[in-house]
Design brief:
With about 325 residues, this protein is an alpha/beta fold. The chain folds into two domains: about 1-120 and about 265-325, Alpha-Beta Complex (Quinone Oxidoreductase, Chain A, domain 1), CATH 3.90.180.10; about 125-260, Alpha-Beta Complex (Quinone Oxidoreductase, Chain A, domain 1), CATH 3.90.180.10. The protein has helices at about 40-45, 115-120, 125-135, 155-165, 180-185, 195-205, 220-230, 250-255, 270-285, 285-290, 305-315; strands at about 1-5, 15-20, 30-40, 65-75, 85-90, 100-105, 105-110, 145, 170-175, 190, 210-215, 230-235, 260, 295-300, 320-325. The strands form three sheets. Strands 3, 4, 5, 6, 7, 14 and 15 form a seven-stranded mixed β-sheet that branches. The chain has a six-stranded parallel β-sheet with strand order 10-9-8-11-12-13, with helices on both faces. A two-stranded antiparallel ribbon has the order 1-2. It is globular. The two termini are about 15 Å apart. The model has no long low-confidence stretch (mean pLDDT about 95).
């Protein structure tokens, strides 16, 4: 089968399309013919050697953390799916390939309204955003979320999920992406190049502060997030694009009785990934099924053009997900 292999750590040119052996599904796995996969920031880090796939090294290092495709074979104890079923899901790696073996309970059925080709835009960012805002952050109807990088993959998933559940969204983005974030549904869009998101958060909440912050930036945003937070609020850190080290003002944190939660999805044990996937399927996927939420897709590339896709993401040019078409 064809797969994109990281030949050595480096820039996008180290990604090579090669023929490698097709995986054999384990007893509780299914083999999926991949229709599409999608890029995530973690892929860029992995390519540079900074974020290896958890677990024993594979014979070939194939990145890719989410997929949509069709079941083509079943492990001997796999009973959840049938050959021909259209599925999507998160994986620890290996999705930049024509075939992938996935534990059957990590997969979700693709809603007809979503379509197989676009479904790869949902699993990683959808589960990440929902898990951060709702499971970790406690967001509910009537509350206010501050979502940083609103035009990113996670941001474009977080905004409509929060809106679908009845919450208010304040988001940050660059000047050229302000209108896109408004179109996605954000109530307040802050151009971080010219405006202060702390002031905007306080203005949007009549001086109370936001209930939940979803932050993929880190760095010096942490103390500003504390200022934007209401008493008893929660900051959920899901990325460190702006730096992983910073100082925190504990004097500001204590009277706010603030919660600071760090989370990642990729490194979780199988059972935790299964649990969050199945809960997402029950609680959020119906919004994709009835058209309340549609994934925001920036553009699509062929598998052979994977290096170009990586460069596009590294240029921070995308609004929403970058999809890679693998099969027909």
């Amino acid at each position: 089968m064809r797969a994109v292999v990281i030949t050595e750590p480096g820039d996008a040119d180290v990604l090579a399309l090669q023929d490698i052996p097709e995986p054999v599904p384990g007893p509780e796995e299914v083999l999926v013919a991949v229709r599409a996969t999608a890029l995530n920031r973690a892929d860029l880090l992995q390519r540079r050697g900074f974020y290896p796939e958890p677990g024993p090294p594979r014979a070939h290092e194939v990145p890719g953390m989410e997929l949509a495709g069709t079941v083509v074979a079943l492990g001997e104890r796999a009973t959840a799916w049938q050959v021909g079923d259209e599925v999507m899901g998160i994986v620890s790696g290996g999705a930049y390939a024509e075939r992938i073996a996935v534990h059957e309970r990590q997969l979700m059925a693709v809603p007809a309204a979503l379509g197989l080709a676009d479904a790869a835009a949902v699993p990683e960012v959808g589960i990440t955003a929902w898990d951060a805002l709702v499971v970790r952050g406690g967001l509910t109807s009537g509350r206010v979320a501050l979502v940083h990088a609103g035009a990113s993959g996670v941001g474009t998933a977080a905004i409509p999920i929060a809106k679908a559940m009845g919450a208010c969204v304040v988001t940050t983005t660059s000047t050229v992406k302000v209108e896109a974030c408004k179109a996605i549904g954000a109530d307040v869009v802050v151009d971080y190049t010219v405006d202060d998101f702390v002031e905007a958060a306080w203005a949007a909440t009549d001086g109370q502060g936001v209930d939940v912050v979803l932050d993929v930036v880190g760095g010096d945003y942490l103390n500003r997030n504390l200022k934007a937070l209401r008493v008893g609020g929660t900051i959920v850190q899901v990325g460190v694009m702006g730096g992983g080290r910073t100082e925190i003002d504990l004097g500001a944190m204590l009277p706010k009785r603030a919660h600071l939660v760090g989370t990642v999805l990729r490194a979780r044990p199988l059972e935790e990934k299964v649990a969050v996937t199945q809960r997402f399927a029950r609680e959020v996927l119906p919004w994709y099924a009835d058209g309340t939420i549609r994934p925001v897709i920036d553009r699509r590339y062929r598998l052979a053009d994977i290096a170009q896709a990586h460069r596009h993401m590294e240029a921070n040019a995308n609004v929403g997900k970058i999809l890679i078409d693998v099969g027909d």
